[in-house]
Design a protein that fits this description.
The structure holds two protein chains of two kinds. By secondary structure, chain A is mostly helical. Chain A has helices at about 20-25, 25-35, 35-45, 45-55, 60-65, 70-75, 80-90, 95-100, 105-115. Chain A has a domain at about 15-90: Protocatechuate 4,5-dioxygenase, Chain A, CATH 1.10.700. In chain A, α2 (about 25-35) packs across α7 and α8 crosses α9. Chain A is globular and about 45 Å long. By secondary structure, chain B is of the alpha/beta class. Chain B has helices at about 15-20, 30-35, 40-45, 100-110, 125-135, 160-175, 205-220, 230-235, 240-250; strands at about 5-10, 50-55, 70-75, 80, 95, 115-120, 120-125, 145-150, 185-190, 255-265, 270-280. Chain B has a single domain, classed as LigB-like (Protocatechuate 4,5-dioxygenase, Chain B, 3-Layer(aba) Sandwich). Classes of the chains: A mainly alpha, B alpha/beta.
């Protein structure tokens, strides 16, 4: 028995397990490459061509073009690699990413964090 | 013989590294957090431990999904901080103690912990932020040598709280059987409650964090009842980094005394805990 046998969804949470890791392998491998500056520059010069090099699906490429973080997670992105794309290349910090995913403004998202401490 | 003198629980949030790089420690947002580190600095200066065993998780710098070990131990002469891809400044190399690392690895495998042994290991903010935080403005980190212990906190399945605690216990037995007079401190880094991904991003649970930390000191085995799923539900998807604190606590075999505690929320997207424990 594994804790992963409980398939009851956890609200607002996408569990990065074997299924997701298989689905997002190319996407995550591409994001892993962004540890290297040369790879980041290559992505910037032609996003779609770079995505195709890592065999991203059309759906994943579309989600990158739309900066749709939730869709990327649903298509197998792991947040640690995704951060390299979002922060390193799209200029979004963790609060920006939080706001995008929750549908809040940046200020509302920051307030949500502050309120959690009260 | 080597001796474990105490442990430090600490955040490893990249934003802390950014704040150090920009010298923001006395800004209103950061003051409470950095002032909360002062007792740790004083303790480290007084005790001058020779070795830090650092429990942390890699965030996609050294390990990729092609090979994702559950538990890994560094066994290198030094550990290099590399570009993580999003602008966090690297820090000077950190010395290792490969002889002690191999002693620990030999003992762990004998003890049925089949770890991955890393003779080269790039280290990310999980290790570099605590080193910067504990040894401010000191490029030699007080002369301390580190033994990195990396626990998978990215790809499910992840090891249970109990298993991480037992890993800490096994590491402690190995250290205490090492025939050199070394003073060892254990760092547990990361957490506490936070969630970076999904519609539940920004989730923090102060009450649950404080409950975990209270039991961690007084009765850590009580926490074995929480599954990884329970931790995700109560502390967020990345709240599983609490496993690093369980490993740390497991390595304290003696009578534990809490010398300092600080909890600052929010720091970036997390509840940030700071803890100093002595091992009598």
């Amino acid at each position: 028995m594994s804790y992963l046998d409980d398939k009851t969804p956890i609200p607002g949470t996408i569990i990065f397990d074997g299924t997701k890791s298989r689905m997002g392998y190319g996407l995550n491998k591409m994001c892993f490459s962004f540890n290297d500056e040369a790879a980041r520059e290559e992505f910037k010069s032609d996003e779609v061509a770079y995505c195709k090099k890592y065999n991203l699906t059309d759906g994943q490429i579309e989600a990158i073009q739309k900066r749709d973080i939730i869709s990327l997670l649903e298509q197998g992105a792991s947040v640690y690699y995704l951060a390299k794309l979002a922060s390193g290349l799209l200029g979004l910090n963790m609060q920006d990413i939080g706001a995008l995913q929750t549908g809040l403004t940046l200020e509302e998202f920051k307030q949500k964090l502050v309120d959690a401490g009260k | 013989m080597a001796k474990i003198i105490g442990a430090i629980g600490s955040s490893h949030i990249p934003a802390v590294g950014m704040a150090i790089a920009k010298n923001l420690q006395q800004e209103p947002y950061w003051k409470g957090f950095f002032d909360g580190q002062k007792p740790l600095w004083a303790w480290l200066k007084e005790k001058k431990p020779d070795i830090a065993v650092v429990f942390y998780n890699d965030h996609g710098l050294e390990f990729f999904l092609d090979k994702k070990p559950t538990f890994s131990i560094g066994a290198a002469e030094e550990y290099i901080s590399y570009d993580e891809g999003w602008g966090l400044a690297t820090i000077p190399p950190i010395k290792g103690d490969p002889e002690l690392s191999w002693h620990i690895c030999n003992a762990l495998v004998e003890d049925e912990f089949d770890i991955t042994i890393c003779q080269e290991l790039g280290v990310d903010h999980g290790l570099t932020v605590p080193m910067q935080l504990m040894f401010p403005n000191d490029k030699t980190y007080g002369g301390i040598k580190v033994i990195p212990v990396i626990i998978n906190c990215e790809l499910h399945p992840m090891p249970s709280l109990k298993r991480c605690y037992k890993l800490g216990q096994s590491i402690a037995r190995a250290i205490e059987s090492y025939d050199k007079d070394l003073d060892v401190v254990i760092f547990g880094t990361g957490g506490l409650s936070h969630q970076l991904d999904g519609q539940n991003a920004g989730f923090i649970n102060k009450e649950f964090d404080l409950m975990l930390l209270d039991h961690l000191v007084k009765d850590p085995e009580y926490l074995f009842k929480y599954s990884i799923r329970d931790i995700i539900e109560n502390a967020g998807a990345q709240g599983v980094e609490f496993n690093m604190w369980m490993g740390m606590r497991g390595a304290l075999s003696g009578k534990v005394e809490q010398l300092h505690f600080n909890y600052t929320v929010p720091i970036s997207n997390t509840g940030a805990g700071t803890m100093l424990l002595s091992n009598k």
